[in-house]
Amino acid sequence: MWSLIHSTERHPPEEGKPRPGPRNRCWGIYCRSMTKIRAQLLRFRELALGVVFFSAWFVQSSSRIVGDVPLRTDTFLTNPYGVFIAAGFAVAIALCRVRPGTALSLTGALLVLQLLFWPARFSQVSWVAYVALILIVVGVSAYAPSNRRRLLLALSMVSSIAVSALLNVPFLSLSGVWGTINGKDAASIEVIQGFSAWTVMAILLTVGAWHFGSRLRTRIIHPDPEPSGGGATESDRADGDTSSPSPDPRPDFTDWDSIATLSSREREIFLLAARGLSNSDIAHSAHIGESTVKTHLSSILTKLGFTSRAQIVAHAYQSGLLH
Hints:
Order of helices and strands: HHHHHHHHHHHHH
Number of domains: 2
Distance between the termini: 29 Å
InterPro entries: Sig_transdc_resp-reg_C-effctor, Tscrpt_reg_LuxR_C, WH-like_DNA-bd_sf
Organism: Cryobacterium flavum
GO molecular function: DNA binding
Helix content: 55-70%
Largest sheet: none
Number of strands: 0
Protein name: Regulatory protein, luxR family
Pfam family, one: GerE
Radius of gyration: 27 Å
Number of helices: 13
Shape: elongated
Strand content: under 5%
Low-confidence stretches: 1-11, 13-18, 223-254
Mean pLDDT: 80
């Protein structure tokens, strides 16, 4: 309180500008609380997407699901192994945010199981579960560590080719005689044509999904700054220094130049901390340990000349780095 009084004496409010009141402070508290709640809800986004995917697939295939392994000629029936594979894809979707490498490895293991074990292959109805691979590629691209992105992209390409083979090559189908998609035997030229066409389409879908995930990654790490007209809004003043509307005594940095001294990883940690996330939430989002988060935060405070995380939040909003 004493420091607040002295701050007001040093920087008296300008005429015509209202003094920050309880309403502004309450609005700032509300904004910070909603930011934290939103961050908690986003942690379960991929899990919810995996549940929705599996539920939709199960409803679509439920009339053809049986409790035992039928004959190989019953190509429209889905046995428990097929349900297990679809459930595995749903788990991979849920893991994309926290363990992107594990999610793609699990997907590859399930495809290898289908290649080697015919009861695990999808029927002519349940093969639509392969749509999950698009969601998995998007998630892996959005959250994969930078030093592993090329490897994971290559594995995604291999997985797409494996899916094309499972759908078109007769001896890799559930029946072992006719292709899952075209229903042709190995002697038909349509098998080669179908495999070629599906391979090209699968690779294009993989590249498109990876590109989309990369755009999401950019928004996660570097959200679009909100244009400002030179003055802070009520919520900005509530989140920042409420003692006076005068300029902050620190140097006036703007836009991304304000954190140009930070490394790419430190910028990522800076923005996560500016959103009000705790150390554990930051570690969860950035896929690093809490001790590493503390090290990065200490480096950020030192480089920017700050002494607390509250200054990070205020600086991010005042510079337009966050909405």
